[in-house]
């Protein structure tokens, strides 16, 4: 395990980083042993838990994340005691597109994996776990010009993005007293009233991707946040479509 703690102004920023070569040390990310102790997901409470090479982790380790991602806490039951640890984290994961590390349509033909091998590789991540991850993004290779050249004119800086995020958070606290992530399903539905076009789009996405009720509400939550990021009162079709586009891994399950 690699633990990083960075002091940013008056805030403590924590990042817990795990790679697959330490996964066997973790009987459970939630805590283990006869004398319960906080596991990785509790150590990362109110911060970031980053899992690199996600499909290489032990399946049991990954499935142990399902409860804390849903409830924000971990319960460990032993013969003589039951312990509850806080575990509200921002989970960030990374993985290769295929076992070989290249996209199937790689222009240089470097991907030698068969469709069956790619399917088995991606199915190491269960549907219920993917269901609990709000955004799935495919990151294409970066070419030489992009790496070596100057940033594009008008490119948004990290400082500007941070300011927008802080403004978005302030808006949510003023509106409902909490961040969107803490809203119940009923509260969320009251804040996201879809017009007929948006309802039709979401219905098509649910049927095409086979989304669950949990996936439905996670799309609404992301769409609500996207609207908040631009200070927009109502969620429109464009935000809903963007939220749906972030469910790319659902297509491969």
UniProtKB/TrEMBL annotation:
Domain Magnesium chelatase ChlI-like catalytic as annotated: residue spans: 28-145
MF terms in GO: ATP binding
Keyword vocabulary terms for this entry: ATP-binding, Nucleotide-binding
Mg chelatase-related protein C-terminal domain mapped to chain residues: 156-247
Gene3D superfamilies: P-loop containing nucleotide triphosphate hydrolases
UniProt xrefs under Pfam families: Mg_chelatase, Mg_chelatase_C
InterPro entries for this protein: CHLI-like, Mg_chelat-rel_C, Mg_chelatse_chII-like_cat_dom, P-loop_NTPase
PANTHER family xref list: COMPETENCE PROTEIN COMM (PTHR32039:SF7), MAGNESIUM-CHELATASE SUBUNIT CHLI (PTHR32039)
Name used for this protein in its record: ATP-binding protein
């Amino acid at each position: 395990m690699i633990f990083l703690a960075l002091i940013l102004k008056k805030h403590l920023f924590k990042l817990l980083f795990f790679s697959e070569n330490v996964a066997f040390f973790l009987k459970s990310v939630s805590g283990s042993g006869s004398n319960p102790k906080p596991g990785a997901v509790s150590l990362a409470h109110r911060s970031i838990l980053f899992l690199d090479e996600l499909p290489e982790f032990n399946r049991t380790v990954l499935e142990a994340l399902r409860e804390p991602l849903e409830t924000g806490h971990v319960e460990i039951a032993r013969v003589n005691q039951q312990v509850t640890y806080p575990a509200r984290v921002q989970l960030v994961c990374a993985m290769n597109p295929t076992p070989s590390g290249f996209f199937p349509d790689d222009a240089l033909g470097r991907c030698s994996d068969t469709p069956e091998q790619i399917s088995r590789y991606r199915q190491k991540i269960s549907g219920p776990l993917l269901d609990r991850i709000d955004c799935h993004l495919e990151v294409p290779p970066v070419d030489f010009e992009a790496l070596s050249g100057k940033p594009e004119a008008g490119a948004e800086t990290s400082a500007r993005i941070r300011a927008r995020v802080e403004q978005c958070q302030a808006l949510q606290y003023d509106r409902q007293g909490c961040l969107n992530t803490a809203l119940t399903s009923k509260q969320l539905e009251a804040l996201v009233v879809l017009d007929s076009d948006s309802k039709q789009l979401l219905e098509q996405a649910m049927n095409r991707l086979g989304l669950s009720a949990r996936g439905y509400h996670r799309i609404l939550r992301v769409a609500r946040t996207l609207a908040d990021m631009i200070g927009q009162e109502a969620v429109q079709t464009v935000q809903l479509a963007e939220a749906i586009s972030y469910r790319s891994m659902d297509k491969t399950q």
